[in-house]
Amino acid sequence: MKVLFLVARGLHLGYLGCYGNDWIETPALDRLAAEGVVFDQHIADQPDAAGARRAWRTGRYHLPLPDEDMSPPAEPAADLLRLLGDRGIPTALVLSGDGSGWGDPPTGWKHFRPVPPASKESCLKVMVDAVLDAIDRLAPHPDWLLCADLNVLLPPWDVPAEFGDRYFRAEEAAEEDEDEADAETKEEEPLTPLTDPVTGPLDDPDDTVFLRLQRSYAGAVTFLDAGLELLLTKLRESGLLEEALLLVTSDHGMALGEHGIVGPYRPWLHDELIHLPLIVRLPGGTEAGRRVFALTQPVDLMPTLLEVFGLPVPVIHGRSLLPLLHGSREPIRAYACSGLRIGEAVEWALRTPEWGFLLPVRPAPHDPPRPPQLYVKPDDRWEVNNVLQHHLELGEHLEQVLRGFAEAVRRSGPLEPPALRDVEAEPAAPSGTV
C-alpha cells in the first residue's frame, strides 16, 4: 500500500464546494470528493498545529488542562512512524513554511524534505515538484507513507493576482450590473445590504472588513486547489493515483470573523475552527461518491493507516475508519470532544449529531466572562443562536460528560468515556428560537 497524506493547514470547511459552498471555485477538490469518500462530521480534538500532528501520530487525545496542577495525560505508548519503521515501511515528510507542529527539526521520518522559499507564482509548483521527487525516492519500496504539508492558507495570503483578486472582481462586476440596471429603470429602490457569504446580511459597516478578508481567503483556497490539480494530473499520468490511497485533511479550520475574531486569537471552539474536511480516495476510486455522517476525529487516522498497511493496532483512543470507508453504518463514537489553549485561556467542546456544546473552562485574565453555549445541529451550522437557556438540564449533562471525558483521556489503558444519555429525545429548540 502506498499512502499520500496531504495536510492543507488552516482549511475552512465552509469554503469547499463538496461541503456546500457555491461561490468559491474548487474543481480539483470537488472532483477528488466525487472519486473518494467524504467525511461530513470530522471534528478536531485539538485544533492547532501541534495538537493535530500529535493525534495523527499517537491516536490519543490530549485535551489541554485548565490547571497546571492537574495530573498530566498518560504518555503515549505507540507512535505511528515508529510502528511503520519497525516493519520496514519508509515514511517521508515534505514540509513548506515554518513547519509548525512537526518539531524543529521533525523527528521520526525516514526521509525529510524541506521546500525552499519560492515566489508566490511558483510556490505551489515547487511544492508539487518536491512531492513528486519524494515519490520517486520511495518508488523502490512496495509500501510507503508520504505526508505533504501545505501552508498557503495561513495568513498573510500572498497569492498570484489572478487568484487574489478573483472574488473582488466578481463583486465589482455584480455591483456594476446593479448600477446599470438601476440606471435603466431609473426607479429608486432600497439599497441591498452587504452580505457575508457564510453568516448572511451584515448589519455593522465594520463587518465589511471581515467580508474583504473572507474574499482574500477564498482566493487562497482557489490557489491551493489549482496546485492540487497540478499534483493530481501528474499522479494520473504516472498511474500512481490508481495504486495509492490519497487522504486530504487539515489540522484546524480558520476563524474569519464569524464570531468577531480572526485567526488564533481566542480558543473559541466554534464550527469554523473545529469542523475539518476529510476526503479519502481509495486505490482505483473504490467506494467513490460515498458520504460518511458518523462522528470521526483526527485520533482515528493513526489506527486507520495501521490497518491500511496490515499492521496490528495497539491500545489507543482512536478507531479505524476502514469500516466506514467501505459502507458500515455503525457509529464509532456517540460524541466528539475538543480542547484548545491559547495563552492562559482554555476551552473544551462536545459535539453530537444533534448538539454543539462549548465550555469555557479557564478565561483569559483580561477577557470578560464567556458562558457555556449550546447550539442546535445541524440547523445552526455557524452557531449564531445560543439556546442553552432553554435546555439547562441538557447543558448540565453535557458538561458532566465533557469533564468526565477529560479525566478519562488522562488515564492509561483503553479509553472508557462516560456514557451520553439519549439526547435525540430532547426537542430541537422552543418554537421560534431557530
Structure description:
- The chain has 434 residues and is of the alpha/beta class.
- Helix content is 30%, strand content 18%.
- It is built from eleven helices and 15 strands.
- It has helices spanning 27-35, 49-58, 80-86, 123-138, 161-164, 166-185, 207-238, 271-274, 301-308, 322-325, 392-408; strands at 2-8, 37-43, 91-95, 111-114, 144-150, 195-196, 200-201, 244-249, 275-276, 278-281, 290-296, 336-342, 345-351, 355-362, 373-376.
- Strands 1, 2, 3, 4, 5, 8, 9, 10 and 11 form a nine-stranded mixed sheet that branches. Strands 12-13-14-15 form a four-stranded antiparallel sheet, with helices on one face. It has a two-stranded antiparallel ribbon with strand order 6-7.
- Helix 4 runs parallel beside helix 7.
- The chain is globular and about 60 Å long.
- The N and C termini lie far apart (47 Å).
- Mean pLDDT is 88; it is low at 185-203 and 428-434.
